Amino acid sequence: MKLVGIVGSNAEFSYNRLLLQFIAKHFKKLVDVEVLDIKDVPMFNQSDDQTDSEVIQLLNSKIVEADGVIIATPEYNHSIPSALQSVLEWLSFNIHPLDGKPVMIVGASYDVQGSSRSQLHLRQVLDAPGINAVVMPGNEFLLGEVQQAFDEDNNLKDQQTTQFLESCLKQFIRFINVVNVLQSPDGMKDVSDTEDLYATGSIDTTIEGVDKSADDWVEQASDKTQAVEGDTYVKLDRGILTVDQINHFLNSMPAELTYADSNNQFLYYNRKFGAEDMLAPRRPEQVGSPLAECHPERVYSGVSWVIQQLRNGKEDVVRTHVPTHGPDKFVVHSYQAIRDQGDQYIGINEYVQDIQPIIDWYLEQTGQQLTGGGVDAVSGATTKVDTVSGATVKDS
Ligand SMILES: Cc1cc2nc3c(=O)[nH]c(=O)nc-3n(C[C@H](O)[C@H](O)[C@H](O)COP(=O)(O)O)c2cc1C
């Protein structure tokens, strides 16, 4: 995901620039952030239109091409600096690159509550009809007392603050995805016709001449292809296993795995339990069926949407939490795109896991506790956990 980070200060040295540079460096596996400066942007003047100048056109094109924008604003006299206001005036005069663009606001300043008031003002400005940005609600990341916040390598010193920043960024990624769906030509309309869920087509690996809906599709299809089984060796990349070993190996995975090909045909699941003991029940006779026969019609649109994200390369993985398993489990369905060596989409690996035991193990190993969000919604102060005692303590 490609983001641009706009430094809201025109100063030679800026803590807000440091903050964006830290985000770009520290979270590069999560997002690709290009930091843009406003130092050379002239003061807005309605009588002297400089929209076509190189510096404003560069900002314009970078914003248009980005999936989202992070604006890091300082606080001057409880508001945003005039330099940032001026840039936003250029970007709402003859050009409107922020129109409909997902925006996340962050800010750094000297005060404890620093940038909270400028962030509020910035929200209002971005909401003006000439700008019309789509600003992420909540998730107010404010870095107060900024003169003490960075170490000598320009990294944020406080781990909890970095973790909260990460959670805000992850929230922004989700927000961008939701905004994209809302703004797509299809919007939230039924998109089930974008995918052939009845698998009426055929791809190179489709086993022809076998009824996909047959209960014994696996047996018929293996006869037809003379599929190997048992102790026959199969050469893989990289290794050799017998078919039995592959089965045992896949069944030992700590997740329920399902393979559906790019023709939307359900080809395989790692049958380690009966349907009644699975988090996402599958039955042996379903294998071979088109996906339409594995799901109720009311979810066709959602299934099609997920497949489209993966097929079109918009996402490599789409995740969803299914909260119907009670408070002791945290069940996540991950829809992972399977691509070949040429990066062509060849199907979905849906893996279903209860990640609660992993979370519990992690907390036990690191001596941390979940603090229910980690941030005081009123003051914005982060809640810390004393790593020795495990007790929660509040930042002032
Ligand atoms: C004119 C002026 C007004 C300021 N007003 C505030 C303020 O209202 N609240 C605050 O926390 N800091 C205020 N500051 C201090 C800024 O937080 C500080 O200059 C900060 O470094 C600006 O961000 P930057 O380093 O990214 O440019 C003010 C600074 C200036 C120059």
Return the average pLDDT rounded to an integer.
Answer: 90
What is the N-to-C order of secondary-structure elements (H for helix, E for strand)? Answer: EHEHEHEHEEHHEEHEEHEEEHEE
How far the N terminus sits from the C terminus, by CA atoms, comes to 35 Å
> Count of helical segments?
9
Q: In percent, how much strand structure appears in the residues?
A: 15-25%
Radius of gyration: 26 Å
Helix fraction bin: 25-40%
Shape: elongated
Q: SS-based structural class?
A: alpha/beta
How many β-strand runs?
15
Identify low-pLDDT runs: 373-396
Largest sheet features: 6 strands, parallel
Say which molecules are bound, naming each kind only once: flavin mononucleotide
Q: Your description of this structure?
A:
With 396 residues, the chain is an alpha/beta fold. 28% of the residues lie in helices and 20% in strands. The chain is built from nine helices and 15 strands. The chain has helices spanning 15-26, 54-65, 82-90, 116-126, 159-183, 217-225, 243-251, 300-311, 356-366; strands at 2-7, 32-36, 68-73, 102-108, 134-135, 141-143, 233-236, 239-242, 256-261, 266-269, 317-322, 331-339, 345-354, 383-385, 392-394. Strands 1, 2, 3, 4, 5 and 6 form a six-stranded parallel sheet that branches. The chain has a five-stranded antiparallel sheet with strand order 10-9-13-12-11. β7 (233-236) and β8 (239-242) form a beta hairpin. The radius of gyration is 26 Å and the shape is elongated. Bound molecules: flavin mononucleotide. Flavin mononucleotide (FMN) binds at residues 9, 11, 14-16, 74-78, 108-111, 114.
